[in-house]
């Protein structure tokens, strides 16, 4: 069923109202928050500190099966 132009405009208006109600923060504050999060969690980052064992590494090369 086709939505009338008026109904489409109402939906757009409602979406814009929802987006306008979202709390915004300055980019500079967001960057500081991201940097703080990274600093607090860097010891848990396997790409920085490595994996505890080779089996814990999901990116390891799988052993290949060879036929003799």
From TrEMBL:
Pfam families: G-gamma. The keyword Cell membrane applies. InterPro entries: G-protein_gamma, G-protein_gamma-like_dom, GGL_sf. CDD domains: GGL. SUPFAM superfamilies: Transducin (heterotrimeric G protein), gamma chain (SSF48670). Residues 2-68 form the G protein gamma domain. Keywords: Cell membrane, Membrane, Transducer. Gene3D superfamilies: Transducin (heterotrimeric G protein), gamma chain. It is found in: Cell membrane. Belongs to the G protein gamma family. This is G protein gamma domain-containing protein.
């Amino acid at each position: 069923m086709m939505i009338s132009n008026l109904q489409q405009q109402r939906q757009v208006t409602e979406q814009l109202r929802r987006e306008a109600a979202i709390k915004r923060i300055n980019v500079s504050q967001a960057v500081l928050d991201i940097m703080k999060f990274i600093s607090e969690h860097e010891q848990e980052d396997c790409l920085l500190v490595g994996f505890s064992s080779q089996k814990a590494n999901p990116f390891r090369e799988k052993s290949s099966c060879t036929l003799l």
